[in-house]
Amino acid sequence: MTALLLEDKKGFIRYLIGCFILLSEFLLTNYAIAKIAGVVQSGDLSDLLKYGIFGFLAFVYAAVVFIFSRLLRIGFMRDTTLRIRRRAFENIMTRTTRSFNRKLKNEYISNLVNDINTFEGKYFHALLNLIFGAEIYLASLLILFFLEWDLALIMVVVSFVIFLINRSFQKRTIRMQEDVQRSGERFTVNIANTFSGLEILKLNRIEERFLSGSKRETEQLETRKASVNIFTFWQGRFSNFLGFITTILILYYIISRLEPGYDLTRVMFVISMASSTIWPITEIMPLFNVLKSNGTIIENILRKEEDGERSEEQKPYDFKKTIEVQNLTFSYGDRRIITKGNVILEKGKKYLLKGASGAGKSTFIQLLSKVYEDYEGEILIDGRDLREISEDSFNQNVSFIYQDVFLFEDTIRNNICLYREYEETDINRAVEGAGLLPLLKKKEKGMEEAIEENGKNLSGGERQRISIARAIIRNPQILFADEVTSSLDEHLGRLVEETILSLDTTVIAISHRFYDGITEKYDAVIEIKNGGLHLKKMEDYLKEVRVLEENL
Asked: Which of 109, 130, 131, 451 is the most exposed place for a label (fewest CB within 10 A)?
């Protein structure tokens, strides 16, 4: 966290100056109070007016200094929080796919919103008071050494003991704050999932069940927050109690040593400085615990992937001949999906994935596309282990078309090109190949027509066609397609399927539809059955299907 603060050294220096100038108003105010007390002792009304005016000016000075301090500090606080938000988002966006999938998407949202908002609200307030308390302690101790060196030594020992007592609360504070963070993540995930499936919940009249679950998550989150606040409150109260007892002892020590003709101004100032070596210590540890717990959360959010995760992913993608799957075995927990699967895929050929629902078709595509790497066996691209290939290099050479399409709130052009520059001939080829021409003719602005949130102003088929154009325009070496024609009508489905099969690329597709005269153009079928991978030529597969149909 310290390194993050020091990235903007000039801003941090301004922040420290803003903290340190508060010390001057503290000392000046305490000195003014001591002088007024001295006037009360002397009874000189002319001195009372003089030091009364001095005290008033001291309070005015304090107000001006506070405003100036705030102006010096606020820019650094804003810029640091903004830098954290940006870096947290960049950290998420640059993760490898498998690293990203270790957490739920809504947990990332909770980190970006809830945790950083909590940090913003608590961290800098605690940092200011921690620095201010530390400078008050040091300044008061130095003045006390000059005025009463023996009392100063006593205060060093007492303040150290109070510091150790307060430090004992640190681990529990950090642990409780981390519990709040995790509870916040679960709450965000639960609410997001409920909202996503709200229509289904209402149709099946089971919203009460999920409402009770949401209430339970809310209660747990608020209970943990309250526990942190209560613990911090009583920690502060206990610290204040120690400070109060110590202040009483200071008063007793000083009063017991008073001699006739003592100077009340000096006595008041000594008492003030002695107390100021105790009260900051009673506040510093609770504040330090707040800093430590919030800083730890931010460090966890900003933590990069371990070097070991990318250490073997430096080889470039280079697919020229074959993809060999050797003894591939993969499970979801205790559920075995693929068992010792073997298949060889040749560059440029078109492969159709077939199998019963839940057989593992989508999983097989995810294994071939580096989403999962905790499998047994090998996937070799021209003899090179897929796990050793750079994910960035791999992603630059493949395209995906999924049944669920994500679209940006932007123009049709930008949703196809994804903000990259392409030749118009390439764009037109992708548009035509995906069957988008009828859509563009209906739109007044054509390619510049705006798409609403995730394509709300488009039909399912139109959204799918944009996704297909997005894949085609990249001219990929491998195209993964998962039920791309499921939401299209017969005519458009045939057009899209034919377009995919006409591409000069290797195609690995899942499709339950059969288009006479088109589906037969696939070179082979990979059938997933009972965990095995079975490669068959298309004509052989069709013969088997016909035999089964005749027997039925």
From this structure: 109
Rg (CA), the chain: 35
Q: What is the pLDDT of residues 108-138, one digit of tens each?
A: 666 776 777 777 677 777 777 778 778 888 8
Q: Tell me the CATH number at 504.
A: 3.40.50.300
Is 33 contained in some domain? yes
Contacts with 472 (C-beta within 8 Å, 6 or more apart), sequence order: 399, 429, 430, 433, 434, 499, 503
Helix axes 149-167, 207-256, angle to 10 degrees: 160
What is the SS3 assignment for 404? coil
Distance CA 256, CA 272 (A): 17
Same domain, yes or no: 289 and 348:
no
- Residues 7 and 14: beta-carbon distance below 8 Å: no
15 touches 80 (CB < 8 A):
no
Q: Which long-range contacts (CB under 8 A, 24 or more apart) does 145-153 make?
A: 147/266, 147/269, 147/270, 147/273, 148/270, 148/274, 151/250, 151/253, 151/254, 151/270, 151/274, 152/277
- Calpha distance 302→405 (Å, rounded): 29
Place of tokens 């303040």: 159
Do 341 and 285 belong together in one domain?
no
Does residue 295 have a pLDDT over 50?
A: yes
Helix (DSSP H) and strand (DSSP E) numbers for the chain: 21, 10
262 in any annotated domain: yes
Within-domain flag for 317: no
- Looking at the fold, whether 177 and 219 belong to one and the same domain comes out as yes
Q: Same structural domain for residues 283 and 329?
A: no
Please state the domain count of the chain.
2
312-358 pLDDT tens trace: 446 777 788 899 999 999 988 778 888 888 999 999 899 999 888 88
Question: Is the sign of the CA dihedral 469, 474, 479, 481 positive or negative?
Answer: negative
Residues whose CB is less than 8 angstroms from the CB of residue 406 and which lie 6 or more positions away in sequence, other chains included: 454
Contact status, residue 388 vs residue 470, Cβ threshold 8 Å: no
CATH number at residue 94: 1.20.1560.10
Question: For residue 40, what are the domain limits?
Answer: 8-303
Cβ neighbours for 54, distance < 8 A, ≥ 6 positions apart: 32, 35
Q: What angle do CA 69, 72, 78 make, to 5 degrees?
A: 120
Q: Assess whether 350 and 221 both reside in one domain.
A: no
Is residue 357 domain-shared with residue 295, that is, in the same domain? no
Could you give the angle at which helices 264-275 and 149-167 cross, rounded to 10 degrees? Answer: 30
Give one word for 181, left, alpha or beta, with left for phi > 0 and alpha for psi -120 to 50.
Answer: alpha
State the sign of the Cα–Cα–Cα–Cα dihedral 374, 377, 381, 383.
positive
SS3 206: coil
Q: Which of 395, 425, 396, 431 is nearest to 411 (CA)?
A: 431
Per the CB < 8 A criterion, the answer to whether 19 and 69 are in contact is yes
Residues 278 and 155: beta-carbon distance below 8 Å: yes
